[in-house]
Write a structure and sequence with these properties.
- It comes from Oceanisphaera sediminis.
- InterPro entries: AMP-bd_C_sf, AMP-binding_CS, AMP-dep_synth/lig_dom, ANL_N_sf.
- Keywords: ATP-binding, Nucleotide-binding.
- This protein has a 5-stranded parallel β-sheet, sandwiched between helices.
- The chain is globular, with a radius of gyration of 24 Å.
- The protein is built from 17 helices and 28 strands.
- By secondary structure, the protein is an alpha/beta fold.
- It has 3 domains: 224 residues, ANL, N-terminal domain (Rossmann fold, 3-Layer(aba) Sandwich); 165 residues, ANL, N-terminal domain (Rossmann fold), CATH 3.40.50; 124 residues, GMP Synthetase, Chain A, domain 3 (2-Layer Sandwich), CATH 3.30.300.30.
- It starts with 8 loop residues before the first helix and ends in an 8-residue tail after the last strand.
């Protein structure tokens, strides 16, 4: 077997196309039919696309943006941009026009390739008329000067050598939870190191199948799915639409399925709608029936073949992980950042006694805790720096260590627990600091609460803003209020006096990407909620548990 330990991503594509040319690599549903692409077909289409891009006057080093939901063509575009020596600039397919405009201008992109979009007219105003536009073959894309068919009509280029390992491969913009997104500069060599690390740690191989639906514009999907597919030979399938999502998962039957806390919570809610918790608990106590129930639940989600279930991007409640564990669906929690290519710690192989941690460092990753509690990371897969932000780069990268901004603790086995972010800590009117993240974790242990945000800078006591789990019936306010009040009392008995919550506000209006409260990676923009409710102690209604009906902050 050929050693691939030192190959760059483009060399891995060449290697796969040579060694297994007819093996199916990508599976894309379109118009109700599945389209399959072999390794050699993917390479050929990428070779034709790069020839088309070159005829448009694009030169090595030029930035080219990608704006699309996940699809086979996204992979092909990424490979073509590498072959042409272009720098890819992925943009979240849910980004608004202002974000699209900012990323295009800040990155100095010369062209944009657009594809599957839910509402392309939302992004259209953010793209300059003068920019070169190319469209993937989907009816939901933007109107462009150049279509996919004409671009692939060019003769394929000969396989160019892979760019040097220290050459800039991509600019991946952060989700912008505290302001404008930063452009993280990632080189070919560091990307390769992160991909090899996850493949080695998780033992991924050509027998595995992945389902790609988390945004490829986010570094996690780019490394754990796209990158792992190259280095592990993993087959990848995609979703046609939200309506067909579960059926598409069932068709692919992934062995590796990575998600976010919100989707795992939604899956649980759907299961409990059909099988209430008390009935589920009863069935799980009956040995023979228990196995049938577990198997049926997994099959209903399309995950009966999944050997690795993952969760990341945002904090997840330990109680949610325990709930899935009772169904023999252990979920590996992982932690990382765009700045270290999302590969740093993970609870794999899964250890039940380490639920509540984000796992231990992967291969070739070092983690240590600074004197102020900040988590520092050192690994081969780290960013070069922030594009056009030298001072921010110097603050974040010091003496080869990445200063993450997260706070945490390492146990005796080297497993990491996140306790909060340095910038999230706030002082109440009593002048003492409150770390909101551990309190939020205690709140989301209650299955009624899907999301929580603890605020209270300058106020007498911190308070919790919460979103209830999908499907919660607010017609029964009394029992809900009683449960939440019991949770509030239980939490406050564990906290010091200055940390105790003054109350819980149930937010009726959802926190979404569209109303700008959530980032594209589903992180809460804490600073916006903190600003909007800065005087909450002066307008707090009667009672400890309040159904809040006032407006959310205006989108900025």
């Amino acid at each position: 077997m050929t050693d691939t330990s030192d190959k760059l991503p483009l060399e891995m594509l060449y290697h796969r196309a040579e060694q297994q040319p007819e093996d199916v690599y990508l599976r894309q549903p379109k118009d109700g039919h599945w389209h399959e692409y072999s390794w050699s077909q993917v390479l050929e289409q990428a070779s034709r696309l790069v020839a088309g891009l070159q005829t448009l006057g694009l030169e090595p080093g030029d930035k080219v943006a990608l704006l699309s939901k996940n699809c086979a063509e996204w992979f092909i575009c990424d490979f073509a941009l590498q072959m042409g020596g272009f720098v890819s600039v992925p943009i979240y397919p849910t980004a608004g026009a202002d974000t699209v405009r900012y990323v295009l201008e800040h990155s100095e992109s010369r062209a944009i390739i657009t594809g599957k979009l839910d509402d392309p007219q939302v992004q259209a105003p953010g793209i300059p008329d003068s920019m070169i536009r190319i469209a993937m073959p989907y009816p939901s894309t933007l109107h462009t000067q150049h279509d996919w068919g004409s671009m692939l009509a060019h003769e394929p280029v000969a396989q160019p050598p892979a760019p040097a390992s220290d050459r800039l491969m991509t600019l991946v913009y952060t989700s912008g939870s505290t302001g404008n997104p930063k452009g993280v500069m990632i080189e070919f060599g560091t990307y390769a190191a992160a991909c090899r690390g996850i493949v080695e740690t998780a033992g991924l191989n050509s027998e595995d199948r992945a389902f790609s639906y988390l945004p490829l514009s986010h570094i996690t999907e780019r490394v754990y799915v796209l990158g792992a597919s190259l280095y592990g030979g993993v087959q990848v399938g995609f979703a046609q639409s939200l309506d067909t999502f579960i059926e598409d998962v069932k068709t692919i039957s992934p062995t590796v399925f990575i998600s976010v806390p919100r989707l795992w919570t939604n899956f649980r809610s759907r299961i409990l709608e059909k099988l209430p918790q008390n009935k589920l608990d009863l069935l799980l106590k009956i040995p023979f029936i228990s196995n049938l129930v577990k198997k049926k639940i997994r099959a209903g989600l399309g995950l009966n073949d999944a050997r690795i279930l993952g969760c990341g991007s945002a904090p997840v409640s330990p109680s949610l992980l325990r709930w899935y564990e009772q169904l023999d669906m252990p979920i590996t929690e992982a932690w990382g950042m765009t700045e270290n290519l999302a590969y740093s710690t993970l609870n794999y192989p899964y250890r039940s006694d380490k639920v509540g941690t984000v796992g231990k460092p992967g291969v070739h990753v070092d983690i240590r805790i600074a004197d102020n509690g900040e988590i520092l990371c050192r690994c081969p897969g780290m960013m070069r720096g922030y594009y056009k932000q030298e001072s921010a780069t110097r603050e974040t990268l010091q003496d080869a260590w990445l200063h993450t901004g997260d706070q945490g603790q390492l146990d005796e086995d080297g497993y990491l627990t996140i306790t909060g972010r340095l910038k999230d800590a706030f002082k109440t009117a009593k002048g003492k600091y409150v770390l909101p993240v551990p309190i939020e974790a205690m709140l989301t242990d209650n299955a009624l609460i899907e999301q929580a945000c603890v605020i209270g800078s300058g106020q007498a006591q911190p308070v919790a803003l919460v979103q209830l789990a999908e499907g919660t019936d607010l017609q029964h306010k009394g029992p809900i209020a009683e449960q939440l009040d019991a949770t509030l009392g239980h939490i406050n008995r564990q906290l010091e006096s200055h940390q105790r919550l003054g109350g819980i506000l149930i937010m009726q209006k959802p926190w979404t990407i569209e109303n700008d409260i959530m980032t594209p990676t589903l992180k809460i923009k804490r600073h916006l909620l903190e600003q909007h409710y800065a005087d909450l102690d002066q307008r707090w209604p009667q009672g400890r548990i309040v159904l809040w009906e006032q407006d959310l902050p205006e989108k900025t």
